User: What shape does this take?
Amino acid sequence: MSKSVIIGGMIAALLALLPLLFIARARVVRSDRTRIHLIQDMDNQPKFKAQSSNPLFADRRAMRPRVLGTVAREQLNEDTRLYLGMSNGEFVPTNPLPITEALLKRGQERYDIFCAACHGLAGYGDGMVAIRADELQEGTWTPPTSYHNDLMREREDGHLFNTITNGIRNMAAYGPQIPAQDRWAIVAYIRALQRSQNAKLEDVPEELRASLR
Amino acid sequence: MNHFVFPKWSNFAAPALVIIALIVPGYALSVVYYGGSPRTTDVGYEPAQPVEYSHALHVGKLGIDCRYCHTTVESSAQASIPPTQTCMNCHKQIRAESRKLLPMKQSHATGMPIEWIRVHDLPDYVYFNHSAHVTRGVSCVSCHGRVDKMQVVYQKETLSMAWCLDCHRRPEKHLREQEFVTQLDWTPGEDPLTYGLRIRERNNINPSTDCSTCHR
Assistant: This one.
């Protein structure tokens, strides 16, 4: 067999390995290059999806914010006790929602999501973000308040609700992030936290007292 | 007359052709199969984002729940990229002067959204619903991987239709109690399949594989 055929065959075989090598590389290496899209189908349609951009508007948002001065159906929120925690200009003393185990469980879950990062799981103001702020020695940082003092224990439920909704000092307003019902659930759970850290033996049902010792 | 005689190597031509005929189709098939597979073309996509936000720090180290930022994941189809205000909840004070946070501060001052680059992008004719999955006990980790370990988010799974159907046919592999859906490192502490099957039976979870479930 002529030498050139053998060499040609070997070069072809080596070149044929290249695509396989590229494929193997693409399967193990992460890359910020746009994905290869061999068959387009109708994968990318000229339509606007949630949170996509639309160059027609100055802020480039496809989703339009509410027009000022308008109210969406069922969002009038005219019950000031439920949506502002106030009645006749005063904070409501107690939670407008019935306190059930389900509400407390919901409150615990929401508290752990939204509040525990700063206020800590037990409410002493020792959450991971607060610890991080201390580590970084942030000058403007006001440490989160502990719930376990007389001042906080005597606050009206509506006052706590108002603070969650509108924020205070450092703390941002959580009204936009947490629906009103969940904010009340959190208030109920904070009350449970406060009792848990300030309880006497007499507060525990008699039949359960033995299990504490 | 000598050059009319077949050269000696032509004796190998027939077997060589047979070998080539066997190798070439196999080679072509594997290039198309592996090269076109979403594991090659899609998995590992890791775009550089406009802000160097690290999930590894915020979720992994600080333990912030997924739902602190992705607030609508339990109630709507979209998990939602948070508004800049959510960043400002903490960064108004913490690391407020950091250069890395400049795009965020600009966005907050001007009201122009940060244009994050989408990592997990389904075809536009697929209507995936986050709340339907999360409230039934499919964890974030099943589709997004260990985001709590990612400095930069990348695509972990193929998001192909075969991959979707695999779970729609046998969801027990990915089911857990709803309270653990955002705990990415959670394990059942027993055989995951038995555990998943129990949850599946108790909650009567039978995902549809009809076309119109996802394509409408």
User: Anything to note?
Assistant: Residues 10-36 of chain B form the longest helix (27 residues).
